TrEMBL record:
Keyword terms, alphabetized: Hydrolase
Record-stated family: Belongs to the QNG1 protein family.
GO terms for MF: hydrolase activity
Name assigned to this protein: Queuosine 5'-phosphate N-glycosylase/hydrolase
Catalytic activity: queuosine 5'-phosphate + H2O = queuine + D-ribose 5-phosphate
A Pfam family assignment: Q_salvage
Transcription found in the keyword field: no
An individual GO BP term: tRNA modification
InterPro entries xref list: DNA_glycosylase, Q_salvage
PANTHER family per the UniProt record, alphabetical: QUEUOSINE 5'-PHOSPHATE N-GLYCOSYLASE_HYDROLASE, QUEUOSINE 5'-PHOSPHATE N-GLYCOSYLASE_HYDROLASE-RELATED
Length: 315
């Protein structure tokens, strides 16, 4: 059975978006069989030693610039992981680098030096420097320079945390991809939320492509033709696709009985490798091998070209 997504009624679009409930239910059964053991975001090559100040502020600033890295080289780390690896390398050299005092005047040239790897520099350096300065200025002005004060003033409730994060340009995305990612990482490090049931998914290009290729969402023929022709989507088409993906994944979470942030680990980690001939990820030993093969087959049910989204720092 397919149902029209309830969250898109206010959007005019050339195509009809559908949720495929059968596909979502089938995937939910596989997700249960994976028996995934969650990571804690404590890889010392990517993150500082956990504490109450350096670690959460490092994550706050890094998530703020975690979008469209432009890194194309394949190494043991790539894309977002490589961004964190380079940041951690700098943070080992200067433990307080990712704090308000240092980043309030950060310039593009310094970021260019930090985030260059084997001749390749992270994309849109000026934009990332601007986002870091904005975060530092507002964090100092409103929260005494410590992101944990934001969580305290939000009374550790998801809605209030997200609303406060929207004050920062990097976190202003209406679907709060970066907000959910920040909370997810800190939650694994022991952040106690009063309403963890209000967490949702950090919807980005990886999850949208997975939702399409797995058949959980079925846009109309016109949009699929546009995607597979490599034509850049409009902002409205992008928003609708992201909302439909979120709706499908929320149903997947309920059907599988697995929390959104835990599901996101699996979906994002394998989703970014969806076109790889040989899949090898840091969580391979944390899932059931037989179920993993079924999962990989399932999410590759339909061939989907890399989606061209309009420029954004939201994801």
């Amino acid at each position: 059975m397919q149902i029209l997504g309830s969250n898109v009624n206010n959007f005019s679009c050339l195509c009809i978006f559908m949720l495929n409930i059968e596909r979502i239910e089938d995937l939910a059964k596989i997700m249960k069989r994976l028996k995934y053991k969650p990571i804690s975001f404590d890889n010392p090559e990517l993150f500082p030693e956990p504490d109450d100040y350096i670690y959460p502020n490092y994550v706050f600033f890094m998530v703020a610039i975690d979008h469209r890295t432009g890194f194309s080289k394949k190494w043991k780390y790539h894309g977002s992981d490589l961004l964190f690896y380079l940041a951690r390398r700098k943070q080992i050299e200067n433990p307080k680098f990712f704090t308000v005092e240092n980043l309030i005047n950060i310039d593009p040239e310094e970021l260019r030096r930090i985030f260059t790897f084997r001749g390749e520099t992270v994309s849109r350096v000026e934009e990332r420097a601007f986002l870091l300065r904005d975060c530092a200025e507002k964090l100092l002005k409103h929260y005494g320079g410590d992101v944990m004060n934001l969580f305290r003033e939000a009374d550790f409730t998801v809605e209030s945390i997200l609303n406060r994060l929207k004050e920062f340009r990097a976190y202003e995305d209406p679907l709060m991809k970066k907000g959910y990612l920040l909370i997810k990482i800190l939650k694994r490090q022991g952040l106690k939320l009063k309403d963890p049931h209000n967490l949702s998914f950090p919807i980005d290009n990886v999850l949208v492509k997975l939702a399409l290729s797995s058949g959980m969402i079925n846009p109309g023929e016109d949009l699929m033709k546009k995607i597979n022709s490599g034509i850049t989507l409009t902002e409205k088409e992008t928003e609708i696709l992201r909302k439909m993906t979120e709706e499908a994944l929320i149903i997947l979470s309920k059907k599988s009985g697995i929390e959104p942030d835990i599901l996101d680990d699996i979906l994002w980690t394998y989703g970014r490798e969806i076109d790889s001939d040989k899949v090898s990820t840091p969580i391979d030993d944390r899932v059931d091998g037989n179920a993993l093969q079924d999962f990989l087959t399932f999410i590759r049910s339909r061939s989907v070209r890399e989606i061209k989204f309009p420029p954004t720092w939201y994801f």
